[in-house]
Amino acid sequence: MSIEKLKDNYPVDIRWIHFPLHPDTPAQGISLAELFAGRDIGKVKQRLKGLMADAGLPYGDRTHTYNSRLAQELGKWADTQTTGEAIHDALYKAYFVDGVNIGDIDELVKVAQSIGLDSARARDVIQNREFEKQVDDDWQRSRDTGVTGVPTFYAKDLVVVGCQPYETLEKFVQHLIAINEKKETGSNEQ
């Protein structure tokens, strides 16, 4: 995957900031046909599948979209755990490949357990909404920086939006490194 390859090749620090994508989706989810009413769902799915393939990501034959709020709160907690970063890939796979309802607490606990996180603690975190404020803060930061879709790669007021191939993200990182090098040397050349 592009992000992992970037981390292997460059000194990047990835921080997950959550975004309210379809926040009004009910807990049971809605069909993609309903979400994209009036559009050719086959074309929408093919476009998404192509974008994911370009980025080296698997993509299943999803039929529904689910509310991701609780998954985001679980992810925020997992980021505080030693092995928690793996939750993001596990949630991606559960949602985009396996079609799991990531708005369902039991399903989220299974995802957490699959990467070695304590299932009882994960359940408590979700049920008690322990990371609700942190995700609220992320949503506000997303609004403040003008994020309109996921994923969005943001640094130094520069943005790359959408699922992108590795080469695009690599150019973004190289540009950021060049900016830092100019800043460190005091160069004002453009």
TrEMBL record:
Listed GO MF terms: oxidoreductase activity
Domain DSBA-like thioredoxin as annotated: residue spans: 3-173
Domain of life: Bacteria
Record InterPro entries: DSBA-like_thioredoxin_dom, Thioredoxin-like_sf
Coiled coil residues, start to end: none
Name of this chain's protein: DSBA-like thioredoxin domain-containing protein
